Automatic annotation (TrEMBL):
InterPro entries to which the protein is assigned, alphabetical: Na/Glc_symporter_sf, Na/Pro_symporter, Na/solute_symporter, Na/solute_symporter_CS, Sodium:Solute_Symporter
Transmembrane segments: 6-24, 75-92, 123-141, 161-184, 191-208, 223-246, 272-293, 313-335, 364-384, 390-413, 420-440, 452-473
Name of the gene encoding the protein in the UniProt record: opuE
Protein name, entry field: Sodium/proline symporter
Gene Ontology, cellular component aspect: plasma membrane
A GO BP entry: proline transport
Function per UniProt: Catalyzes the sodium-dependent uptake of extracellular L-proline.
Protein's organism: Pseudoalteromonas holothuriae
This protein's UniProt keywords: Amino-acid transport, Cell inner membrane, Cell membrane, Ion transport, Membrane, Sodium, Sodium transport, Symport, Transmembrane, Transmembrane helix, Transport
Length: 492
């Protein structure tokens, strides 16, 4: 590897660890500070942190890889995500910020569900925490896989060593700095990703010798069509990624941390600008990268590494190091957020409730840090299968959260009649539907269910229906819960 590339990466690692040290000295004295940053994030930090933790390695590797293989038909994923992100900012963000503070200052999503629905038996808390831990372990492993592929492809390391290096740096700054470290590093990482997703596709496009459409057509005429092999159902499946936003704990927890609900319009404008540019950059990287590789006769064994290949071929070593840092930024920002949310659930929703109710803040912060390490080790174990597809791992976890939590979060914020029984039924049925759709040995005309339509679609529909039917079939929420709902509406 070139010296300039190494220098850029060393600077990046030092900055990330420095931010972790700064955050450690600023905000880890109590559990609220460690898990939620004291609800005092500026809108710019919250917005870029939400974007960076949302996109992960798949925006620089998974989505460009899909575009490289299938062409324009994969663009519907990006379109669905942009629409979903905007709706998430508009519908969920302001209400969740107010509701979680008024609902006994809930600092985790399971905590919010328990307080919102008077979960005296902790059933909602337990089920939601289990959903978070199971799906986030899968989700985190996708980032670890991306890190392993990055170090193997770019640095000549073994895939396994890449897993440990990637996870080790993230664990260090998350372990000590908590939510503030994660949010501040996400802000820096989001800026790096933003620049990289403009630079790489623009430079690649400028170096093409023939029109893009001609080159793609010579590769595969289907790459130019907006309707892929799945037809209309395929488009619905791709765009349905946007439904997942309402239920992603590592994203919506950013809304809970903003310093004031009045900052939400600013956060939305910043976040959506970042999101649109990032999505266009990822789409362009895949398409232009496919055309460039075809023109120059470059063999791309793993399409998910096209961003890496372009970075190394087209740029000076110092810039290449910056671009590789962008991939690390995408990977690490999401891993750190997922580790922290999983850690907060293990700490607040298991340890504090079932093991030591009188635990001090110092003890809870310690348990939270140990939980970060435990979840990270499980993610590394799952990532040892180097043939894992980043996009496939992300899609499974994304669907799980979107179906289990999406309808639940939306209706809890807008429907006063929703009750505990409906919430529990929706969460369980949504998660179960996704798991059945992915793993059940059921085929239709020789096709497994998940290849027919993305599992988030049936999962979301089943969950939404279960919430409405069960809530209407059981007793109304108590008067204090209805009063809390009315109070939230007045605060908005």
């Amino acid at each position: 590897m070139e010296l300039g590339t190494i220098i850029s990466l060393v600077i990046y690692f030092v900055v990330m660890l420095g931010i972790g040290l700064y955050a450690y000295r600023k905000s880890t004295g109590d559990v609220s500070g460690y898990m939620l940053g004291g609800r005092n994030l500026p809108p710019s930090v919250a917005a870029l942190s939400a974007g960076a933790s949302d996109m992960s390695g798949w925006i620089l590797m998974g989505l460009p890889g899909a575009m490289f293989v299938t062409g324009f038909s994969s663009t519907w994923i990006a379109i669905g995500l942009v629409i979903g992100a905007w709706l998430n900012y508009f519908l969920v963000a302001p209400r969740l910020r107010v509701y979680t503070e008024l609902a006994s200052d809930a600092i985790t999503i399971p905590d919010y569900f328990a307080n919102r629905f008077e979960d005296k038996g902790n059933a909602l808390r337990i089920v939601s925490a289990l959903v978070i831990i199971v799906f986030f372990t899968l989700y985190t492993s996708s980032g670890v896989v991306a890190g392993g592929k990055l170090f193997e492809s770019s640095f000549g390391m073994s895939y396994e060593l890449g897993l440990y290096v990637t996870t080790g740096v993230v664990v260090l700054y998350t372990l000590f700095g908590g939510f503030l470290a994660v949010s501040l590093t996400d802000f820096v990482q989001g800026c790096i990703m933003f620049i990289a997703l403009i630079l790489v596709p623009l430079v690649t496009y400028s170096l093409l010798d023939t029109p893009l459409s001609s080159t793609l057509n010579s590769m595969n005429p289907d790459m130019l069509t907006w309707v892929g092999a799945g037809g209309a159902i395929g488009i619905i499946s791709a765009m349905s990624w946007g439904l997942g936003y309402f239920g992603q704990p590592h994203i919506i927890v950013r809304f809970m941390s903003v310093r004031s609900v009045k900052d939400m319009p600013t956060a939305r404008r910043i976040g959506m600008t970042w999101m649109i540019v990032a999505a266009l950059g990822a789409v362009g990287t895949g398409l232009f990268g496919a055309a460039y590789a075809q023109e120059k006769g470059i063999v791309v064994e793993d399409p998910e590494t096209i961003f890496l290949i372009l970075s190394q071929l087209l740029f000076h070593p110092l810039i290449a190091g910056f671009l590789l840092a962008a991939i690390l930024a995408a990977i690490m920002s999401t891993i750190s957020s997922q580790l922290l949310v999983s850690s907060s659930s293990l700490t607040e929703d298991f340890y504090k409730i079932f093991i030591h109710r009188e635990a001090t803040d110092k003890e809870l912060v310690l348990v939270g840090r140990l939980s970060v390490v435990v979840v990270a080790l499980f993610a590394i174990y799952l990532a040892y299968d180097r043939d894992s597809s980043i996009l496939s791992l992300v899609s499974n976890a994304w669907a799980g959260f979107g179906a289990a939590f999406g309808p639940l979060v939306l209706l809890s914020l807008f429907w006063q009649r929703m009750n505990f029984y409906g919430a529990l039924a929706g969460m369980v049925s949504g998660a179960a539907t996704v798991l059945i759709w992915i793993y059940a040995p059921i085929t239709i005309n020789g096709q497994v269910l998940s290849s027919i339509i993305y599992e988030i679609v049936p999962g979301f529909i089943v969950s939404l229906s279960a919430i409405v039917v069960v809530s209407l079939a059981t007793k109304e929420p108590s008067e204090p819960i209805q009063d809390l709902f009315k109070k939230v509406q007045t605060e908005l």
